[in-house]
Amino acid sequence: MEIVADGDGSSTSMPADYASLQEQLLGRWPESAIQPSLERIAAIMDLLGEPQLTYPVIQVTGTNGKSSTARMIASLLRAFGLRTGLYTSPHLVDIRERIEIDGSPISPEALVAVAYDVAPYIAAVDSRMESEGRTPVTFFEAMTAIAYAAFADAPVDVAVVEVGIGGTWDATSVCRPQVAVFTRVDIDHADILGETIELIASEKSGIIREGSFAVSASQDPAAESVIRARAAGMGATVAWQGDNFWVADRTVAVGGQVLNLHGLTCEYDDVFVPLFGPFQADNAAVALAAVEAFVGGGAFALDVDAVRQGFADVVSPGRLEIARRGPTVIVDAAHNPAGAKALAKALGESFAFTHLVGVVAVLGDKDVGGILTALEPVLDQVVVTQNASPRCLPVDDLAALARQVFGDERVEVAPQIDDAIDVGVRLAEEADTYAASGVIVTGSVVTAGQARVLLGVRDR
Questions:
Q1: In angstroms, what CA-CA distances link 122 with 34, 37, 270, 313?
Q2: 255-288 burial, b if ≥16 CB within 10 A, otherwise e?
Q3: How far apart are the first and last CA of the chain?
Q4: Which residues have a Cβ under 8 Å from the Cβ of 343 and sit 6 or more positions away?
Q5: How many Cβ atoms sit within 10 Å of the Cβ of residue 232?
Q6: How far is CA 280 from CA 73, 148, 217, 324, in A?
Q7: In what side-by-side order are the strands of the sheet with 328-331?
Q8: 120 prior amide bond cis, ω within 30
Q9: Contact status, residue 81 vs residue 93, Cβ threshold 8 Å
Q10: Which of 25, 177, 30 is nearest to 114 (CA)?
Q11: Closest C-alpha among 149, 31, 24 to residue 99
């Protein structure tokens, strides 16, 4: 069955059922083949009447930790009674994960309905681009347009929007964020964003708009200099982790960690965050400062009980997520050296494993050697495999790199990810310290998503 939407004098077909919609959207120009331009998305939003300008936006950029930080911000805002929209990427399993309304993924029916409304405008831009021999609307641009329209339809009180890649020309940047949030800037997507911290920070700093409030994690001095310059040029207020807010104290706890966070105005103590690792504590500090900036311009203390509730309710799928017990299997979407280093540190701190097996599949355009090197100190054995992405590094190539880092005796090869997880579990079970053995499945968002499905993980 198809819905026929007429717009701009032409006819566009939009599948009425959700599975067909997802297939059609994923069939567009892939988000991995970046087309750095706001022209297509700006044209769509103009035809739609600029829905992204009808509600305030908190926009989040950085290299690692964007999704977790965005989820924390949205959860805190809901604890203060605000109806939130949340847009994150990429998805682990289902495209609905990218668009949340008030804490829940958009329903299939709502997504189809909004896509139906947006379809003729996407088609009009497609037609113009194709007539000029240019790239049509991409998957990420179409999803971004649908998300902004869905938030307007809901309606939401505030949208928390994670950039896809970069900032200045990212499709999400057709919004005008009231608060611009930066997690730590590191090297990733160097072929697109540039090979230096300065170039990457310059692209990401484009989310700071005139008169906005910028909140930044602790940065490399080169990145900090770029962000400061952009903020000064835009007349924006800037709050820095370490200067204006910080993690005052942190204690590892069962199921997460307990934090004392010094925000922009005061200290919030005994805050339980059900996420692991010091990097998540830093993300929490950034999220809290962003909410303080949004709710009261950074001038007023927030209700501590609401802060505690907001953090306690946070979930971040595929981020140090325990997927099963006996032995413990953890799923994490770390996909670059900085993420892998943070993962290794969190594993060593938060889990008392005496034998840990890694199941690893990595995309071929990543710094694979850097990822493996970061993981090597915490893994006793590694099972290399492939995920479903056409961009995945072939298993034989990954095995060759892994043997250079781990040595032949610590590397197992299993071409299929389901078999690789089985091998990892078997190796953990065979370890002399079975009760304290574990498995970590990592290397890519695609790897994490497949593992969650295979292990039967359900979102709460």
A1: 18, 15, 48, 36
A2: ebbebebbbbbeebeebbbbbbbbbbbbbbbbbb
A3: 32
A4: 277, 320, 332, 334, 374, 375, 440, 442
A5: 11
A6: 13, 27, 11, 21
A7: 321-324, 328-331, 437-442, 355-360, 381-386, 411-416
A8: no
A9: no
A10: 25
A11: 149
| pTM: predicted TM-score of the whole model, two decimal places | 0.90
Rounded-to-5 percentages of helix, strand, coil across the chain: 45, 20, 35
Cβ pair 371, 343 in contact under 8 A: no
- Which pLDDT tens digits describe the chain residue by residue (460 residues)? 233 334 343 334 444 588 888 888 888 887 766 777 899 999 999 999 999 999 999 999 998 899 999 999 999 999 999 999 999 999 998 999 999 999 999 999 999 999 999 999 999 999 999 999 999 999 999 999 999 999 999 999 999 999 998 889 999 999 999 999 999 998 766 566 667 889 999 999 999 999 999 999 999 999 999 999 999 999 999 999 999 999 999 999 989 999 999 999 999 999 999 999 999 999 999 999 999 999 988 889 999 999 999 999 999 999 999 999 989 999 999 999 989 999 999 999 999 899 999 999 999 989 999 999 999 999 999 999 999 999 999 999 999 999 999 999 999 999 999 999 999 999 999 986 666 899 999 999 999 999 999 999 877 5
Residue 41's closest CA among 120, 154, 136? 136
Q: Which residue has the tokens 């890519």?
A: 444
330 vs 358: CA distance, rounded Å: 10
Alpha-carbon gap, residue 60 to 384, rounded angstroms:
33
